[in-house]
Design goal:
The radius of gyration is 27 Å and the shape is elongated. The strands form two sheets. Strands 1-9-3-7-5-6 form a six-stranded antiparallel beta sheet, with no helix packed on it. A four-stranded antiparallel beta sheet has the order 4-8-2-10, with no helix packed on it. Helix 1 (2-15) runs parallel beside helix 3 (68-91). With 376 residues, the protein is α+β, with helices and mostly antiparallel strands. It starts with a helix and ends in an 11-residue tail after the last helix. The protein has 13 helices and ten strands. It is 39% helix and 12% strand.
Length: 376
Amino acid sequence: MKKLITIILAAVLVIGCSATEIVLPAETTAAQVVSTAVDPVISQSYLEGTLIPDVESKLESYVDAGLGSVYMDGFYKAGQLAAQYNLRRAMNNDGYRETSGSVRLKKGDAVTLALGSSFVVEAGTGFAVGSLSNVTAGTLVGDGDYLPANQSCMSSSENTGFTVESETMQVVFSGPYSLVVSSEPDYNSTANALNTMGLFKGDSSGYALERAATRTEALVMFIRLLGQEDEALAFDGTHPFTDVDTWANSYVAYAYSKGYTKGISDTLFGATNPVAAADYMTFLMRALGYAENVDFAWKTAVDDAVELGIINSTESGIITSNFLRCHVAYISYYALYASVAGSETTLLQKLMDDGSVSNVVPAAAKIVGARIGNLQ
């Protein structure tokens, strides 16, 4: 690991940054590293003879001082220096982008990290391409290994990065990286579009597209698609369930009073239970004006939705295999452009007509890209 730190810094320094970005040893003057047109950063002799040995010596002092906490502090310092030095790559427009915030990716997206750049996977799964340094654990993530969640990983050599395996991923980058976007469905864009329309929200960590939706969340989406969220929020009635979070009390009480939903027992709503595709499709079909046990049945709701042209067979196969919040966003978005039962008016137009969605929002919120199965 000690050698790894030195390798990271040496390679990063050779890649370069401006003289003002380099922390010079005390005995070195700025005149010794003046940039020129031929060598716009610093000289190779200075790197090899002065700066790198000095940095290596300082890092070894962290390690040799004793305990693991001191060693890891040195490793963190190395990572910070590496990220700082690599900013020049993004500024030189060499194909890397620079970000310091949370980014949403999708299945198949391929990320290549600049040397010394790091990232933390907050949600979703992916696998390493090349070896990465797990800065948090002080270990290596080998080529093809799954990425650790909520741990900082750093590129320690050229052409390393990761590929997204899950339908979506939320990741925080520190330092430059390049991205090759896949042709897989963009569930992130449908979530963004619904959020712009005020129909889909997340929590403090984001949209949470990577996990299953709960019964409570499905019910709230149903109420929004009915255009009745304001009424639900203003409702002051009660419900008999003991497992509903405070934020959802008015939604559940409103839906219970209207006969939209029942509990799983006299006192339990099953608030955090995962919702199945058939359950949510039942809500969607009812929002579109179809009558349960007349136009469709709960047990066959997904197949019935295919027959009615609300979704296609490809989408049916995807959502029934593993129903997640990303799928809730996806099918809800496209349901907005389906016609309400017995009319030529779309659900979105209905929501705009009753004031639930602003007339100026949908054009800005509409996503770009083909739908799965190309059902338009």
